[in-house]
């Protein structure tokens, strides 16, 4: 079993879908630097120091936030353990085809997030229709991510692969598709999405993560 590949490769692959988000954050950083220089508040090193201080302050705040621990640690670990490590082997052993498992597990995975409807409707005082629309979008996103996470687990044979992807997606949120003031974000998103599709199968080849695949298309051998 190759551990570092199961962390680096899936994380790099997943980050391609956030190319637009990275470009947007970079543009915000450049605008902040220009404003900083325009106001004559110091040199570039002072700006970098301020950015690092804000980053460390945010990191400290996140570490003491219970919801952050739930979203970035507890939820990814428990959900991937249940819906990937436990459910997928049972379904494969039960005779389900791999493509059926990749589609079925995410549906069950998304239904486990219906509790967010009460949170949105009750605590945030959304209307019933708006709460359903928000939750519907979340369920659609979790189905897509669940399919991807199931694909990662089946292809790599490592639970850490979908866990790393899960934590990263929870941290980043929805990918940035476009921004009105510039088309760079949309171009970056499209380029990242194309690269993601092109690299999805090559970068998840089982032999990259496991030594004894015996020329099987997947690490577990059920495909034979």
TrEMBL record:
Record carries keyword Endoplasmic reticulum: yes
GO BP terms, alphabetized: CAAX-box protein processing
Subcellular localization, as worded in the UniProt entry: Endoplasmic reticulum membrane
Recorded catalytic activity of this chain's protein: Hydrolyzes the peptide bond -P2-(S-farnesyl or geranylgeranyl)C-P1'-P2'-P3'-COOH where P1' and P2' are amino acids with aliphatic sidechains and P3' is any C-terminal residue
Residue ranges of the TM segments: 6-30, 51-69, 81-111, 131-153, 159-178, 185-205
Residue stretches in coiled coil: none
Principal place of residence: endoplasmic reticulum
Pfam family, one: Rce1-like
EC number(s) stated in the UniProt entry for this protein: 3.4.26.1
Superkingdom classification of source: Eukaryota
Membrane topology per record: Multi-pass membrane protein
Cellular component aspect of the GO annotation: endoplasmic reticulum membrane
Keyword Hydrolase: yes
Keywords, comma-separated and alphabetical: Endoplasmic reticulum, Hydrolase, Membrane, Protease, Transmembrane, Transmembrane helix
Domain CAAX prenyl protease 2/Lysostaphin resistance protein A-like positions: 66-172
InterPro entries: Rce1, Rce1/LyrA-like_dom
An annotated Gene Ontology molecular function: metalloendopeptidase activity
Family per similarity comment: Belongs to the peptidase U48 family.
Protein name: intramembrane prenyl-peptidase Rce1
């Amino acid at each position: 079993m190759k551990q570092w590949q199961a962390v680096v490769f899936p994380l790099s692959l997943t980050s391609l879908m956030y190319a637009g988000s990275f470009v947007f954050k970079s543009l915000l950083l450049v605008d902040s630097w220009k404003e900083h220089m325009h106001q004559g508040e110091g040199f570039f090193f002072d700006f970098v120091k301020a950015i690092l201080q804000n980053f460390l302050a945010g990191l400290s705040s996140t570490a003491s936030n219970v919801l952050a621990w739930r979203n970035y640690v507890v939820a990814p670990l428990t959900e991937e353990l249940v819906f990937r490590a436990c459910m997928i082997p049972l379904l494969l052993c039960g005779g389900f085809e791999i493509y059926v498992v990749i589609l079925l597990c995410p549906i069950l995975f998304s239904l486990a997030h219906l509790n967010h409807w009460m949170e949105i409707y009750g605590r945030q005082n959304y209307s019933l229709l708006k709460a359903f629309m928000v939750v519907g979008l979340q369920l659609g996103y979790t189905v897509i991510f669940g399919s991807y996470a199931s694909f990662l687990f089946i292809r790599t044979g490592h639970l850490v692969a979908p866990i790393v992807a899960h934590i990263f997606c929870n941290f980043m949120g929805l990918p940035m598709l476009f921004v009105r003031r510039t088309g760079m974000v949309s171009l970056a998103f499209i380029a990242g999405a194309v690269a993601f599709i092109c690299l999805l199968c090559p970068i998840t080849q089982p032999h990259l993560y496991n030594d004894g695949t015996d020329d099987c298309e997947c690490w577990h051998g059920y495909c034979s």
